[in-house]
C-alpha cells in the first residue's frame, strides 16, 4: 500500500483541536449563501476564485472548480476514493468529516448510510462497505444545494480559512496565503514532517517569515523547497510540477499579489487565467 499522507482528523476532533481558531455550477442561491464582507488577501472573492481554479487544475485537470461537486473516483494514490471540489478522500478523514457535517444538516441523505464504512476505512485505501454504491450516492447528493454548500464549508473550515489566517500571521501576502492553502489541501494540517506544520517547520530552519523580519520571497522559496521534499517522500507525489511550474513561476515573477494574467503548467498541462 502506498504511504498515506497525513490529512485532517475527523471533524469532531478538528473542532476541538482548532478551537476558535454536482452536476452544474452553483446557483445564485448557492453563491449568495457564501457571500462575505470585502476583505484583502486570498479571501478577497476574486482572489479566492483564482485559488479555487489553481487547485482545480492540479486536482481535477480543469479550471472549472464549480463543476467538480459530483466528481468521485479512486485515482490509485493510496487514499481510497477522492471526490468533490477539493479532493475529499475516504482514506484521510476529510470525506468522513464532510459526510458527518452533511448528515448533521440533512439526516436523511444518500450518503448517511456510508458513515459507518467511511469510519472503518479511514487511514486506508480500502473500499470495504463503500462499493458499489458510494459513487452513485455521492453524485446524487451533489445534485443538492445542501451537499454543495457542505463541501464549500468544509473546504473553508479545514483548508482555506486556516491557510489565510496562518499566512497573515506569518506576514504573507496573497501568493503566500495560496502557497499555504495548496499545501494544506495536499498534505493536511498536522505537525509531523509530511504535514503542513512539518513543512513550515522545515522552511523556518532556512528562512524567517516576514512577521519575524525575514524577506517574503526568500521565505516562500524555503517553504516551497520544504514542500517539494515532503512530496518526494510519497510515491504518489513524485511529480512536483504543482510547485515547480506553477507556484514557483509566480514567485519568480515577483507576483506576490497573485495578480492576473497567470500562466502555469501542472502535470504536463498548460493553463491560463486572463
Automatic annotation (TrEMBL):
The principal localisation class reads secreted
A GO cellular component annotation here is: extracellular region
What Gene Ontology molecular-function terms does this entry list? chitosanase activity
Is Cell wall biogenesis/degradation one of the keywords?
no
Localization in the cell:
Secreted
What broad class of enzyme is this? Answer: hydrolase
InterPro entries referenced in this protein's UniProt entry, alphabetically:
Glyco_hydro_46 (IPR000400), Glyco_hydro_46_N (IPR023099), Lysozyme-like_dom_sf (IPR023346)
One of the GO BP terms on file: carbohydrate metabolic process
EC number, UniProt record = 3.2.1.132
Q: Name one Pfam family in it.
A: Glyco_hydro_46
Reading the lineage from the top rank, the first entry is: Bacteria
Residues spanning the membrane? none
Q: Which residues form the active site?
A: 59, 77
Q: Where is the signal peptide?
A: 1-32
Record's catalysed reaction(s): Endohydrolysis of beta-(1->4)-linkages between D-glucosamine residues in a partly acetylated chitosan
The UniProt keywords, alphabetically, are:
Glycosidase, Hydrolase, Secreted, Signal
Its function, per the record, reads:
Aids in the defense against invading fungal pathogens by degrading their cell wall chitosan.
- State the similarity comment: Belongs to the glycosyl hydrolase 46 family.
Q: What is this protein called?
A: Chitosanase
Gene source species:
Streptomyces spongiae
